[in-house]
Design goal:
transmembrane; globular; about 425 residues; mainly alpha
Length: about 425
């Protein structure tokens, strides 16, 4: 909680120690100490509940947006850099000190209205005290994590696993250091998204379509990413059912936008998302390879072309994993590979982006996301100098480890499946 991200040696040592404890906890019959380990997992999440994150500065945009909205100004309409020296900033308590902590002051906010509503409540209850505001911003994430473990337990029971395997699956997620640090400690709302997503999945399997669609709409309302999971839910034998289901998802997702309605919002939000794909780059895989080839041939960084191209590749792969009947995958596994394809095609992959994969891996036969969680903290080496600079050898090591393990697992499952058919 108190280690800065530029303290590389200390930071990586702490990450290493946490993952050793994680491995030991899972190795020695963790199911027999399930309640104790689950309590420990949430005790870790409560540590520093009212402290400021040291490994991420996203919180300051949450505070900026919340204060702006609390004073009646639509955060989707104003660039921080444009209003800093205006009366708007003065009225809302948007200071120069807060502005200097923003990581994207020249971009319109990309946080959906559902989150904006919580930002305004947190900044209202926390006032100008950033520590108090951090407490309120963290609270729904902690509650979401409780919900995630509950839904994981119920989903694993649905698959017919025995009690020991079910408890182990829950602890694979609950005790993972990357999950704890990146969600609760660093205040990232993937924790809330995962909870809603798993609730929607459980209710979908129980054939409770309306509440399932409602939860998936809420998941997309927190983070846009769950929208990539919708193609796998299309019932090709019953299009009317699918249309009704997606109508509910769309209604729940879009309803909060009505409170912020302004034609320019679509333009501003689209501009920020477009810049995300065309300018931002961090810890990418295929993109970095294409960038090197493109730069060698063209003489400049072709991100403006490669970004959209990889986005199209990602869409194609997502549809393939969602609809292909040639590959025998459960619904969580289809989601797992759809999200993996998206991340491998992305120009930016921050550590917390991978956390939903860890939840899905607990419901699947594939555990390569756990390997990814172990090597991801190495990306913090980039912040060991100012301005930050990535070590591409570390990035290569990360993706070779993850890709190698994934390929091995896929081959093992295919081989195992063929042997079962022969028998």
């Amino acid at each position: 909680m108190h280690t800065a991200r530029n303290e590389t040696v200390t930071l990586l040592s702490l990450w290493g120690a946490l993952f050793v404890l994680y491995g030991v906890s899972l190795y020695f019959k963790c199911d027999s100490h399930f309640k104790l380990l689950l309590v420990a997992a949430f005790a870790f999440r409560l540590i520093g509940l009212g402290t400021l994150p040291t490994l991420s500065d996203d919180i300051y945009r949450f505070i900026w947006d919340g204060r702006l909205l609390a004073h009646g100004y639509n955060p989707f309409l104003y660039l921080p850099s444009e209003i800093l020296a205006t009366d708007i900033a003065t009225q809302a308590g948007l200071t120069e000190a807060l502005f200097q902590k923003l990581n994207s002051p020249h971009y319109y906010t990309v946080y959906p209205p559902l989150l904006q509503g919580w930002f305004v409540l947190s900044t209202t209850w926390g006032g100008l005290n950033e520590l108090a505001t951090a407490f309120w911003l963290r609270l729904p994430i902690v509650l979401g994590e409780l919900g995630t473990c509950w839904w994981l337990y119920r989903l694993l029971n649905l698959t017919g696993k025995d009690e020991a395997a079910t408890k182990r699956g829950v602890l694979l997620y609950a005790l993972n250091p990357l999950v704890i640090v990146e969600l609760t400690a660093n205040i990232h709302y993937e924790g809330l998204t995962i909870c809603f997503l798993l609730a929607g999945l459980y209710l979908y399997k129980k054939q409770k379509d309306f509440p399932s669609a409602t939860f998936l709409g809420l998941a997309a309302g927190v983070k846009l990413l769950p929208l990539i999971f919708l193609p796998a839910l299309i019932d090709q034998a019953n299009w009317r059912k699918s249309l009704l289901y997606f109508s509910v998802v769309g209604g729940v997702f879009l309803l909060p936008f009505l409170f912020f309605f302004d034609p320019i919002i679509v333009e501003n939000l689209s501009a920020s998302l477009d810049l995300y794909f065309r300018r931002f780059e961090f810890n990418a895989s295929w993109y970095y390879l294409l960038r090197e080839f493109g730069t060698l041939i063209l003489g400049y960084n072709p991100i403006a072309t490669i970004g959209p191209f990889l986005a199209l590749v990602a869409v194609s792969l997502i549809l393939f994993f969602s609809w292909s009947r040639r590959i025998k995958l459960s619904l969580p596994e289809r989601w797992l590979f759809a999200l993996t394809a998206y991340l491998l095609c992305a120009t930016t992959v921050h550590p917390w982006y991978v956390v939903p994969l860890i939840a899905l891996s607990a419901l699947s036969r594939f555990k390569f996301p756990l390997v990814w969680s172990v090597v991801l903290p190495l990306t913090y080496v980039a912040y060991g100098q100012v301005p930050y600079h990535e070590n591409l050898w570390i990035v290569a090591l990360e993706y070779l480890a993850v890709g190698g393990w994934m390929v091995w697992e896929v081959r093992e499952k295919i081989s195992s499946s063929k042997q079962q058919k022969k028998q």
